[in-house]
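QA checklist item 7 of 12: single-chain prediction sanity check.
[x] sequence parsed
[x] length recorded as 132
[x] structure emitted
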Amino acid sequence: MSKTTYKDIVENLELSPHPEGGYYKEVYRSTEKVQKANGNQRTAGTGIYFLLPQGVCTNWHRVASDECWHFYKGDRLILEIVDPAGSFEQLYLDNELNDNSCFSGISSSKLLAAGLLYRRLFTGRLYSSTGF
């Protein structure tokens, strides 16, 4: 049995190139709208599949709304974050949860609050398949 490649996942899930790097597919969009503090409206929630192949790092960008990330398959994904005060942190999404995971910063899900500056970095062997 051969290993699943990132190209297999891109094809089977019908993922498209993401403007910031990697591949994605929107799988949910709420019909509800919420009003932002500035009076503009936006969709109440969305969900996507996101995949980064080996050697890909996305561009830095600011999170407009809270994002809850989930790890699905592949190798560890690194989320590099700069908070509004300028503090830098690396968060790790992985499916290798064990008794020490909560102490080592590894989790299968992470919440990124609106306003954070961040990028996704993948240094693994094959790919990292996540969603938010």
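[x] summary fact logged: The longest strand covers residues 46-53.
[ ] second reviewer sign-off
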